[in-house]
Design goal:
Largest sheet: 2 strands, antiparallel
Structural class: mainly alpha
Helix content: 55-70%
Number of helices: 3
Shape: rod-shaped
Radius of gyration: 21 Å
Strand content: 5-15%
Order of helices and strands: HEEHH
Distance between the termini: 31 Å
Amino acid sequence: MGLGLRDYLHEKAEESRHNETVSYLMIVIGAIFLIGGVLETALKVENPDWLLIIPFKISSDLYSLLGLFFTALGLAFLFSGIAQRNGQERVYVGASQNAHDRGETA
């Protein structure tokens, strides 16, 4: 038997909450990797080059490569989490939409 409209909307609302949680998690992981990469490069590499606020040093030193990798990975996670968060649709079920429009919390 097929899903009714109410069941379908509940499933869509649950999926929306899951996607929102995943995007927030990606943003947090990206921020952690970004900070870790910047600190790794700034503290372990002597005389790094700077691109705005991002230190880097292209050399065969393990710390410089690890810091650059963490920084790039952090930026990728951060931007993809933000893009995923902004591209989501919001699904409300029943009276939740009206309460949301009025600024009330459920």
